[in-house]
Design a protein that fits this description.
Oligomer: single chain
Strand order of the largest sheet: 1-2
Largest sheet: 2 strands, antiparallel
């Protein structure tokens, strides 16, 4: 997976060392790399459900927690923002929320502040 001009997203399930080897991460170059190991609580353990989730051309979200209102938000974002979701993962909904707010003209900081009010969970 890839998005934007300078962001590449590699997602897979398995042990971190095996995933790094599978994608050839030791041979990659760049300025930043983020790895995330997830304990699935709201959705199946699949490549599609793995983090991160895109929030725009060069932004992505890794979320550690649980959202209690993600089903309602998902319906609202599909209806109001025309967003299409690929998984049952609550973090994909959080990423979609940020995408929607930034498409409305908010910058990232403003979108994150709005999320504090609208996303319910921990």
């Amino acid at each position: 997976m890839s998005a934007g001009a300078s962001l590449e997203i590699y997602k897979e399930i398995g042990l971190p060392r095996d995933v790094l080897t599978r994608f050839g991460a030791p041979q990659m170059s760049g300025t930043h790399m983020i790895g995330h190991t997830r304990m699935a609580t709201e959705s199946a353990v699949t490549t599609e459900g793995a983090h991160p989730f895109n929030t725009g051309d060069d932004l992505c979200l890794v979320h550690n927690g649980s959202l209690s209102n993600h089903n309602g938000l998902k319906r609202w974002l599909a209806r109001e923002g025309g967003l299409v979701f690929q998984t049952q993962n609550d973090s994909e909904v959080a990423a979609g929320y940020l995408t929607h707010r930034m498409r409305q003209g908010l910058d990232l900081e403003e979108a994150l502040k709005a999320a504090l009010k609208d996303l319910d969970g921990f």
